[in-house]
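Checklist before submission:
- one chain only
- standard amino acids only
- sequence pasted in full

Submission:
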Amino acid sequence: MKKKRKGSLDYKLQKKSSSDDNPQTLKRILNTILIVFAAVVLGFGVTEFGVQTVYMTGPSMQDKLRDGDEMLLNKMAYKLSKVKRYDIVAIQKIGSKDYYDIKRVIGLPGDTVSVVGGRLVINGKQVEEKYPFAVINSPGLLSEEIKLEDEEYFCIGDNTSNSEDSRFINYGNVQKSEIKGKVFYIVQPQERRGRLDNGY
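Returned file contents:
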């Protein structure tokens, strides 16, 4: 009876050629690149056209908003609907690349706005005293009646004694293209977290 030689095996181990891995490796790399690209595009889309975090700087919107408040800005709001009176908006003045002003819209295209005897007057009617901006001690340009043209808005801070806004010549009327969206929600501080509305 012959013994099987040790070197004689029923199967052989073969080393897989490294070239066989190349299609799979290339596929994995391409998939990773596609995922990263999609994430970048999606992130840009959300920031550019969707919802963005903004921060309140300074006291011009007190007490509705306070210095340091973190808020959400809906950048699609005015692509789908019109700017409404008393909306709180983010304004990016022409020439300012990164900074947003947070103000309240009080005058719409076609409106007349003025201050008479210290009271804010819109289209010939005094604004109700429940609004903190109804009484204005520094009328600036509103000492005379202002008529808003197409796509022009008059925006002020709620804290009119400490706000640089449309009342002043270096700020002036706001163009629709400068309104970047509607501020609609306070994120921080937590104790004041919630949706913003136009009322008081």
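Reviewer check: DSSP finds two helices and twelve strands in the chain.
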